[in-house]
Design goal:
single chain; alpha/beta; Aspartate Aminotransferase, domain 2; Aspartate Aminotransferase, domain 1; 2 domains; seven-stranded mixed beta sheet; two-stranded antiparallel sheet; 13 strands
Length: about 350
Amino acid sequence: MAEVRAAIDRVLTTHRYIGGPEVDALELELASYCGTAYAVGVSSGTDALVVSLLALGLEPGDEVVTTPFTFFATGGSVWRRGGKLRFVDIEPDSFNLDVSKLEAALTPRTKVILPVHLFGQCTDVPAMQEIIADRPIRVLEDCAQAIGAELRGQRAGSMGDLGAFSFFPSKNLGGVGDGGLVTTDDDTLARRVRMLRNHGEGAQYVHQLVGGNFRLDAMNAAVLRAKLPCLDAWTEGRRANAERYCRLFTEAGLVERGVVLPQDPDPEAGHRHIYNQFVCRFPQRDAVRSALQQAGIGCAVYYPIPLHLQECFADLGYKPGDFPEAERAAAEVLALPVFPELLDSQAEEIVDVIKSVYN
């Protein structure tokens, strides 16, 4: 798109490649979009989690409660800070952390709850906050897949103490390489994140904290600014594709055969699924994946091994069967193409291929 090329040329002309006016402007625009007082650009979605945990003061041995069914960065970021992961099983329909099981996982060592708005649908953060209202526990939202998603009119990244976003190229708002964002309404946390992303520097060569190099580059910021005005239209395209899939699957009789489709929350109640992925449950997942691949149709499994069964987390002591919903999801889920430009004929072909497996 011409706006992206113009944005790149603008940065090349100014030679301001790290930070600067492009990053400053993007932060203001995304704070407004996400409904928060502050937004701080950082170098990746993973770094958004890491710098947020630093800002919250996570110390070795502190516990972080999160979901076992998520991208590795959610757990890896906690581990890198020396935090101890405590997992809570997921809801079978939304794939998000089951809030009804949260309280049983809390201990006096719990420092942070890290809900993941998986595949573009919000976890019920306000319900979490009711549970921890009288405890010194902070909430860090993993919004890597959920920019613009809403729960009862509140946007992802505006419900907890901090929100961490990713601009990896495959996201609904993707950059030209890695990039990320931290959102918050807390002035103190915003200041800490700004310092921590630049080696803890409060003023030049004056380091109040030990941070890291978590800066967002200006080229990425300029491209994201050019694309941001299109984001809602792209999201509506994804939502329309999801609605079409649901109709086609139902008409093909696949729902009756055990295919479980994503649950689209009620817009009337202020909910909004942005479908970063369109993830279904298939009783014959591997056969469906094989048929789609043979037909030259892209598809993907998110995520084949839950975090509690990853070899690097074996010291946590979890075993198969500890989180049955997460394990069942890992064995059944498959993501189908849902990009905004998906044609009617392409969606119909995808469903026909899947139907052939069940026939």
